[in-house]
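Hello,

Following up on my earlier ticket. Below are the two sequence lines again, exactly as submitted.
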Amino acid sequence: MAAWDLSVTVEDLGPDAPPVTISVASDLHVGGVILKLVEKTQIKRDWSDHALWWEQKQRWLLRTAWTLEKYGIHADARLLFMPQHKPLKLGLPNGKTLRLRACFSNPVFQTVTGICRQLNIRHPEELSLLRPVEEKKKKKDKDAAEEIYDLTEVPLSSVSRPSLYNGMPAHFADSPQMEEIYKMLSATQPPPAPEVIAKQYRPASVVDKAHIHGRWLDSSRCLMQQGIQENDRLWLRFKYYSFYDIEPKYDAVRLSQLYEQARWAILLEDIDCTEEEMMLFGALQYHISKVSQSEPQMVSSNSAAMDDLESALLSLEVKMEGESSSASEMLENMTAPELNDYLKIFRPKRLTLKGYKQYWFKFQDTSICYFKSKEESIGEPIQQINLKGCEVAPDVNVAAQKFLIRLLIPAPEGMNEVYLRCENEQQYAQWMAACRLGSKGKTLADSSYQSEIQSIRSFLAMQKTSSGSHGNATASDESINTHSLVSPRYHKKYKTKQLTPRILDAYQNVAQLSLTDAVMRFLQIWQALPDFGLSFFVVRFKGSRKDEVLGIAPNRLIRIDLGVGDVVKTWRYNNMKQWNVNWDIRQMAIEFEGNVNIAFGCVTADCKIVHEFIGGYIFMSTRSREKSDTLNEELFHKLTGGHEAL
Amino acid sequence: MDDIDAMFTDLLGEMDLLTQSLGQETVPPEPPPSAKEEVKLSYGFTDVNASLIDLEDTDLDALMADLVADLNATEEKLAAQIDDLRTPSPPPQGLPAPPKGLSTQPAPAAAASPTSPQSGTSSNVSTPASSSTSPLPPPPPQSAKPTMEEIEAQMKADKIKLALEKLKEAKVKKLVVKVLLNDGSTKTLMVDERQSVREVLDNLFEKTHCDCNVNWSLCETNHELQLERFFEDHENLVEPLLAWTRDSENKILFQERKEKNEVFRNPQNFYLWKKDKKTLRDIKDKDKELLVQENFCGTSIIVPDLEAVLHLKEDGKKSWKQRLFQLRASGIYYVPKGKTKSSRDLVCFVQFDNLNIYYGKDFKSKYKAPTDFCFVLKHPQIQKESQYIKYLCCDDAWTMNLWVTGIRIAKYGVSLYDNYKTSEKKAVVSSAWTNRSTPSPSSSNQSTPSPTIRAKSPNQANGHATTPQPGPVSMDSGFVPPPPPPPPPPMGEVLPPPPPDPVLPPPPPPLAAKSFKKPSPPQRHTPMNFPPPPPAMDNLPPPPPPPPMNDSFEDPPDFLPPPPPAAGFGSLPPPPPPVSSLPPPPPAGYGGMDQSLPPPPPDPGFLPPPPPQPMFIGGGAPPPPPPPPLATAAPRPVRPSGSVKKMPPAPPRRTTPSLSGGGGGGGGGGGGDFMSELMMAMNKKRGSS
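Thanks for your patience. The regenerated structure is below:
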């Protein structure tokens, strides 16, 4: 067979180096070409990751046993010889940027799997890559300032079979820097400054959201084929909102990234929620950031039952200290701790004229009782109020030194309103914490009492800093600007000092949670939002003349009227008989049981993306059924690949 | 009636005396229904006397029987406790049952501060937290034998524990409750505050011979407000009853309520409510199943997305106003006038933390409501007209059902599903049972512990109670000193909080057992015989649901307090046959064991899942295990599943034939006499069957 010249650009020689020309015959296989090439360059190095990329055809020549003829390569082919793994800048859900080497030659599905293995994220099928939204405004100095965590030094071989060391993949244990990166991955980030939130791109409408979903990469094709270059920037995100088998013990990175993605979805109003829900999300973020400072590793929570008992034992023991008592004495001594002080009380509904009146108050068990004075506190109280089941609300203005506890106490006739006025922060924190516990039927012996006091104090501190110095004050790390915890809409609606009590209010219900539980709770509430899991696409239904929105959820498709925003129709996947893509006219057709047929063309995204979304969710739903842990990649491609997979 | 009254007072007085005489020990005697109770009893009636007068003779008899049983139990328990206190020397932890966190810690803690017992205890106490926290498999520390100091410290801790239990027990409230049945008759029960509605229902099943289907519910009515609601099975019954006013005419009804579990039978009606009726009717079973899966088995419970125009009676006003309401997991919202339906514009109407939902009856005439399909949200303590009550009115029954159910899902979450699964299991079991035989329940009395007994005596009732099982049991055993018989009661009391979640990591128990065990003779012999090792308990909170033939199962519980077997069961798929061996031979074996106090079973290694191992070892050490079992196989399958659940049904009681199930259930040790009693009961049964 006749020999001809083939010129190949070898990337390692530098961008300006001329192509290397070798003499080949059509029956030479690709492996032979590479061998010749390597000999010719005379460079000694590990070439095992290198492969040939055929530029005109946009394909890798990965089958080294195939001949040039089989590939259809002639002398005019422009070939590039380069590594399959190249560095990529990866924006993580938590907003940090990671530089790592990703595979440019395998389908993106595998690339993501590789990345997740490197980062120790289980169930990589739930994630994918998308092109970032361009940051238009700040192109100047911003990029330079950004910190990039570099993982490119990680040898590829070690990543392929990660072994755990101290609960993290061994490659993170190599150096302190690497450990630092792992920490960044697995720990939740502190709340962002309000200005940062305000500056981020926020989708303003369903259509905006739909545009974001047009950015997903095609899972069946490789990065090179999709025009991604070395050192390009991509986002790694959870794409399919169907989170399988979350296990805090193994999922430190997965869980914290999921939390971050959810948090940003809330903060940027990517998913809508009500004001009450926003306050609860804010309270959880506050709690999570607070707890993660004191409890850096995710530790599984211990049971509340034990807690209770321990605290009881503890208080018992305190009482017994010193005297060696018999069991009976121990018992006599044992009473729950109590709180005694002078406070002022006011009953708004009754005898309004009287105003606040001072009494000697005693908090015991779950009740408050009060007496005329300390001296008379041995006798019958003037009144005893059981706080169990009551509502407790703060009414505080630090600047004005107003420390009010508003109690709404249930009685057969309705709710009675009672205000307690405290003199100072200290007193307020103690009594407020006591009232909160009491309303939940807990006594001061409960282990959460001290932490409750602490959190009330730090909230008070928050009020102080935010009212004292404006904006980015010299906030100690204890205090957080509450504007960091809610979406910008509420920055306008409320001042921090108005916001703080509302968040504190929601906070009392979550203050006892461990870090993991709090993160899980955040995710649960997020998942319980009506719009959770919806990915939007603007489509044009067959036979319709206007654009409409298709929402794709883990278990259903919904059709939304773009004008009104109402859900017009819902179809569930389990009623779906088949779906097809007409690639020529780029139209999707779906058939449901009961002879329901729909067809639509996609406006804001390639129909491959829509197709992949639907197929992907169907794939996700098959996971629970097959017990094996190995991912059925073939099935994924079958469901999502379209004609290219066949 | 006066005599009855007198009798009752007498009885109470006697109990008082008894307890006082026993009460020399440090611990406040557990309050049997006594003076204090008299006050409590009165809820729902004007007072005790009146309530007693109201009772039918048969009710009274039953109640008396219960009280007597209660008394007996108390007596024995107290006696045992006294023994404990007096002779503290026997090392405490004979029990195989490993308390989760608690038992483990003593060792290390004690070691740290061996000298002073006081400090020892303190360290014990405090450490538990840390030890229990670590999720990972507990390190096998047990190398060293406990030193004297450690033992002492441990004893101290045990005492404290005991004291705490007593304290808690002392505060337990009990009510006599008259339940109205469908046929207009009533049943009277004593309910203690730790009992869940599920347990009370089981109790009623026992008394009424109904078919035990999943629709049976307890309902409370509020006469004054014309409200009613059925309790959820996991709720405690006493608490809501305490909110009743003294003179209220509220009632407790025992009825079938189809709507209680409708959402699990026809989830499409709630989750796909927008579809047309025909589609909903024709939906396939597999799709229903999928809906339940999607909405109740995921990481988050999904609340149906409801939206409707409802009529709202405004605070204190007479008129009804229409508003567009939406239900979300976080509460009920409405769309303010002139705003869009977008989430951010919604105004919160109520959140569910402090509210219960009720059906309104006859509101059309009472409040001039547009229809009679009304529901109400109010704080459970509110019993009279108040501006804090929210009245809502729906256009039709369908809508009302949708909303009430949706709100229940939002409020109670996964508990509803757990309740349903439990009640379903119960229904299956009992239907199987009814097919087999129908023993007359009434015949039961003390000797064959009847259901009533259980219900009454708080300890026992609770011990078996669904929730607490694991937690309490294990704790108890860890701390309570020796005497065999008493253990059962304490258990019930101790557990304050509901059962630990099943998810907990593998039980560390073996460890604990190991390190301390040595010295102490096992208090509960039973565990050893019975295959199920106590350790398992930690994991599985739920008591095993009764085996198909629940009767057999039931008996034992009364005698043998500890449910451990059950727990073990859950973890070990195939329970060892020995259980079934109940027939005559075993008793002997048990008795022997008791006395001989074989050394505690060496611990089998702390592998989390090793439950089976322990058992074998345990069994082996002491007397040879009872003759091989047989027969029992059948029941098995059923139980395991039950144990997995969080809230298994309370053990039913009743007389029955084969003890097989019971043996398992009864893991705890009754004293010798218990055993003989048990034998008698069994024989009797066998004879009858």
